[in-house]
Structures are given as structure tokens and as C-alpha cells.
Amino acid sequence: MKSEPKRHPTEFAINMYLDKMMILQQSELKVVNDYNYFDENSPCHIYFVCRRPRVIIDPTKFSATKKTISLHFKIQKKDKFIDFPLDFENPFKDENITVSSQYPFSTFQFKRNEETLLNAKTAVFLQSFERHHTKAEFLDLEILYIGQSYGVDGARTAPDRLKSHSTLQGIYSTAIEKNPDFEIWLMLASFEQLNIMMMDGRTKYTDEEIETDKERFIGLHNKLNYEGINEQQKINFTEAALIRYFEPQYNIEYKNSFPNPAHKTYAECYELDINSVAIELETIEKANFKLFSHKIKPNWLHIKTFMLHSKKDRKDMFEILPKG
Q: What pTM, to 2 d.p., does this model score?
């Protein structure tokens, strides 16, 4: 009779969680490095190509009192525009404020006489307001493509690659032709590693299994917490897990083939005998929009764990309680 698969007495998982992110459009790529937002401790090697409806401002509908500013935005839906009014507290405490915007009305300025008080992109400005105030679901980003950039010694970052990325140019061309009512947005991201360990106190192990696992535990614990796994491999499985979860329409590789021990690009995870890898993205505090794809519904938080082994060979370390 075939024995049931076991966990090791101690199991490890790697959770890659979203640490830093930046939302911008292609024209702004050249100034990303000027902000020094990403650094050597938190480099940007993962990027998302996304879209959302075009948002413009109607500069003819504006009013200001010392207490309140009233603006009107337009959300494009195919060949029509939906009016979106917004009232908010006047931060300038002055009614002598004007709004200025030129075609295509995707940016605007608040002015007082000749002084520019604020220069903003319409969508980014709306994104600064809490969702319960705006109910602006049109700000959610649909993920079209996920990619990575990693050069020699990790020198090449996502902004550098995206400046001349053929896939990005292809998505732009398709979007303009088929969906002119949408805008393309780029989400640059860095992910941090969180190591998760579990000790199985429910399963009965032999003395030999326990002794063997002690040696394995020490080696794996030291590797994950002190030596570190290869940075390129870490980026590889993070990208692969994200693609497998969201299944963006412009990605082909990894959609149905992650995880796979035959993939050498993240072979170290198998060599170390790690149980699972996971990805985690939270955007409610970081950016105030939801992420989604044609497969995954909009949400503030996305978490997905992938077992690296088949269920016939190994138990999921997170499957604590017996089924049934």
C-alpha cells in the first residue's frame, strides 16, 4: 500500500511581498532615477504594464470658496464621457483661485494670479483622495503585462529597460488602435523577501527522519536568513508567480507552467527543497487603487501561494487541518 505524502518536520516558504511601487506613464521614465525612490537596497526589477479609462478635467466647470473647491472630471467610456464631480476642502484658504488646462486636458494647474500653486495629472490627483470619498473605481488598474529587468550584477533596472521595450511599444500601438478610451500606465515595483518556517508537531516521524531534518534545517535556515538566495533567481520566480496568478493577456511564458522543476531560472528553490513560494501585493495604503486582470477580480490585496512539489510527493505546509 502506497504511503501518504509527508511534510518535513520543518518546512520553509518564501513570501515575496510588494515593498515599493511607483505609478507613471512612459513619458516620465526618463526622470524616475532623479527621485531616488528605488535604491540598491530596494531596486526596481519588476514592472507591470496596465491600463485604465482615460480621465480628463473640464476646466469650464470650476468654482472655489475659502472653504471648498469644486472640480469636474470626465471619464471616457468608448465614444462618451461620464461626468465626475469632486468637492474637497480648499487647502489654499483663498477663493481667488483659478484652474488652467489645455488639450488633451490630462493635466491641470491651480493658479493664483500668475503663481502656480499646484501642477497635477488628473488621474494621479484623483488617486490622492481616499476611495470612500471618491468611489472612483475607474482608477483601478488592469494588468496587461508583467516583466522583469536584471542586468549584469543587477545593474539594469526596469525604468532603463522600458525606455526601449518592444512589448511596451506593441501594447501602446494596440491600445491606441483598439481602445483609445484607455490610457497605459506603468507600475514599477520592488519586492522584499519574507521567510516563513513551520514545525509540524502533529505528524509522527521516525528518529532517523528527525535527525536528518536537523541537518537540513540548519543549512536551509542559514541559507535563507544569512547567505541569501541568488537575486536573479528570486526575481525570476517572483515574475513567474505573478504571471501565473494574474495571467495577463500579453504574457505567454509561465501562464500555465509555474511552478515547474524543469525551469532552470528558479532551480535554486528546488535545490534548497523549499516547500512553497508566495506573492503578496497590497495597494490600499501604497497607492489607493485595486489591481486586477481579465482573470483576477479587482482587490486591494492579492495573495497566492504555489507549492513547488506535487501533492503526491509532498504535503502543503499551509494545509494544517485534515480535509473532510
A: 0.87
